[in-house]
Amino acid sequence: MPKLKTNRGAAKRFAKTASGRYKRAQSHLNHILTKKSTKRKRHLRATTYVADCDVPAVKRMLPYN
């Protein structure tokens, strides 16, 4: 059986935690920042978890993670 390829874009975006969940960075913090409030930008810096419905897709993209 051939080896499976890891999706390199996903490998850079998602990390598996010790409990088995996947953490990710939040979006909307790259450009058009002037209209966003300081509080909104500060809260977007925090990491969060991948939604339960998206976990199977992330697992397929990261077979050895």
Helix share, percent: 25-40%
Structural class: alpha+beta
Share in β-strands = 5-15%
Strand order of the largest sheet: 1-2-3
The termini sit apart by 19 Å
Overall geometry comes to elongated
Mean pLDDT: 97
Q: Care to count the β-strands?
A: 3
Order of SSEs: HEEHEH
Number of contiguous helices = 3
What is the gyration radius calculated from CA atoms?
15 Å
Describe the model.
It is a single chain. The protein has helices spanning 8-13, 38-44, 55-61; strands at residues 15-16, 22-24, 48-49. By secondary structure, it is α+β, with helices and mostly antiparallel strands. It contains 3 helices and 3 strands; from the N terminus they run αββαβα. The chain has a 3-stranded antiparallel sheet with strand order 1-2-3. Helix content is 31%, strand content 11%. The model has no long low-confidence stretch (mean pLDDT 97). The chain is elongated, with a radius of gyration of 15 Å.
Features:
alpha+beta, three-stranded antiparallel β-sheet, 3 strands
Condensed summary:
This protein is α+β, with helices and mostly antiparallel strands and about 60 residues long.
What is the topology?
Elements: H1 8-13, E1 15-16, E2 22-24, H2 38-44, E3 48-49, H3 55-61
Antiparallel strand pairs: 1-2, 2-3
